[in-house]
Amino acid sequence: VSVLYWLDAMSQPIDFDGAAVTLSVVCMSFAVACVAYDGFTHKKPSHLRIALKVVASTSFLLAAVCWNAVGNRDCPMSRSFADALDCAMQTSPMSSRGYIFAALLLCFVGDVLLLFPELFVGGLVAFLLGHVAFIALFSTRSFDLGRFFAYGFAPQVAFFFWVRSWLFPKTGKLHGPVLAYLGVINAMVGCAIAGGHGPISVTAAVLFLLSDVGVARDKFIGYSLLNRSTLLI
């Protein structure tokens, strides 16, 4: 259904608010399907799970394009999907929407790479660069270090050492990359708190952090439905 929808959207002017909602529903539906499939089968990644995850991640990225979250503000709202994508590609890379587009694109690449165990480091690097883009986004406004030290510093330090205590003994040769990633994603959350982008951005950053903890547990500690369920975050 989503493939047919995209083919139609490529050539027809559409209501982008409706398109974004539809793609968001597709994204969540396929993410739920991934979790349900894992829960019932307890199997390692299969072709079906890979397909479900890729469709979910692609739908999320396309929803952002349709909602004009990553495009130029001057672009008209009524246009074909191809025009919307072209608008997104023309966005200045140094603008806030450019940072969002880069972050979402890098996270999409990371999602795909993490589906293959042998490409785990590549996926980790892609997500790390995505978090760097989010840090750049949150840095577009003046920082309030007082807000960070009041609300973010102590919880983040405690969280960092808590994760380190049970995760790092299991990481083996990946100790360095995992340490770097944990540091960058904590910095991203700190920048969200200090950057003054509002509670929604801070909540999203914290949920991203919690989701990655589930991914780390699934990779290094062992399978559990709870770990896989963090895909929904």
Automatic annotation (TrEMBL):
It is a multi-pass membrane protein. The keyword Transmembrane applies. The chain crosses the membrane at residues 20-38, 50-70, 98-116, 123-142, 148-167, 179-210. One of its GO terms (molecular function) is hydrolase activity. Keywords: Membrane, Transmembrane, Transmembrane helix. GO terms for cellular component: membrane. It is found in: Membrane. Belongs to the TMEM86 family. This is Uncharacterized protein.
